[in-house]
Design a protein that fits this description.
Number of domains: 3
Number of helices: 12
Distance between the termini: 90 Å
Low-confidence stretches: 273-280, 305-326
Largest sheet: none
Mean pLDDT: 78
Shape: globular
Length: 326
């Protein structure tokens, strides 16, 4: 099995694991009446979702060992593709036509990217100065995107995608450096870059949680698209990665990225939104039967409040002689 095929297979299993974990967490959240850390810690289903997430992360790290950033990171969109049939199966419904269309577009776009982004296993890593420079530039971008202003959900989603993409790029450096037997396992490079990975991975998680407060569809699409953009920028500019096929390959990659982005947006918007509860409007038609009954009760209450159920009878009112209280 060559490096490209290994990276694709590992990315596929990682996407399925991430999708299964997401579906499990969504179902758990819908069934939990008392949310909280202690409640989750005592729930076996939550621990299964944690195990699925951990397995998916390990598979993703393994894929970064065999594939370039420009290959592995776009394949993260397969999580949405895998979540569609899994979510429909758990919910007991059929996959909608919109979901099928989004899935087809995503797969076609990713297929074009696979042709141009395939290559040998990565052997370049970021040096400590390069990693620090990337961390500084990304931190400034995250700070600018996280400032107060309009459309905070999409800006926080973009920042989350950048943080996650940089974390993956730094993870690849740690993975390649650790598996390279020419140097010590716990070198200064490995330790520094590993600390940066933890920082950006945590930042990406927190930023995504903030982005999803106003809804899931559009922010999820932005996170999914910003992640490979940040990782590919690092791979192409600092790690010596190249797209195959020259100018024609570059054009094919651009078309594939556009089609895959269209599919991701379609999938992120395909989930049905909950219908908000609408308070009943007051009756304005005096001829409506219910309105007539309410009018009669109101008129009767003027003379004998005790005749109307659940109406108190004030002591200072006297019942007329022709009306007998019940």
């Amino acid at each position: 099995m060559n490096a490209t095929l290994a990276a694709v297979v590992l990315s596929l299993f990682s996407a399925v694991a991430y999708a299964a974990a997401a579906v499990a967490q969504e179902r758990l959240a819908s069934r939990t009446t008392e949310p909280g850390v202690l409640t989750m810690l005592g729930n076996a289903a939550w621990w299964w979702s944690v195990a699925l997430n951990a397995s998916a992360a390990l598979l993703h790290v393994a894929a970064l060992k065999y594939g370039t950033l420009t290959l592995v990171q776009p394949l993260g969109a397969l999580t949405l593709v895998a979540a569609v049939p899994l979510g429909a199966r758990v919910a007991g419904r059929r996959v909608s036509a919109v979901e099928w269309r989004g899935t087809a577009l995503t797969l076609v776009g990713l297929s074009a990217l696979l042709v141009t982004a395939s290559g040998p296993a990565p052997d370049h890593v970021l040096s400590v100065p390069q990693a620090l420079a990337v961390a500084a530039a990304t931190s400034m971008a995250i700070g600018a995107l996280s400032r107060p202003g309009t459309r905070p959900g999409l800006r926080h989603a973009t920042a989350s995608g950048f943080a996650s993409g940089v974390a993956s790029a730094l993870t690849q450096t740690v993975t390649v450096a650790v598996t390279d037997r020419s140097g010590p396992v716990l070198s200064v490079q490995v330790v520094v870059v590993a600390l940066l990975v933890a920082a950006f991975a945590t930042a990406g998680l927190l930023l995504s949680q903030t982005a999803y407060r106003g809804g899931l569809g559009a922010p999820l699409a932005v996170v999914t698209l910003a992640n490979p953009v940040a990782a590919a920028a690092i791979g192409l500019s600092l790690l010596g990665e190249r797209l195959q096929g020259g100018p024609a390959g570059l054009l094919l990659a651009a078309i594939g990225a556009a089609v895959a982005s269209w599919g991701v947006v379609t999938l992120s918007r395909s989930a049905p939104e909950p219908v908000p509860a609408v308070a009943p409007e007051p009756f304005e038609d005096d001829e409506h039967p219910v309105a007539a009954v309410l009018a009669l009760e109101a008129e009767a209450a003027k003379y004998a409040p005790s005749l109307i159920p659940n109406q108190p009878n004030p002591g200072h009112l006297t019942n007329p002689g022709h009306l007998t209280p019940l």
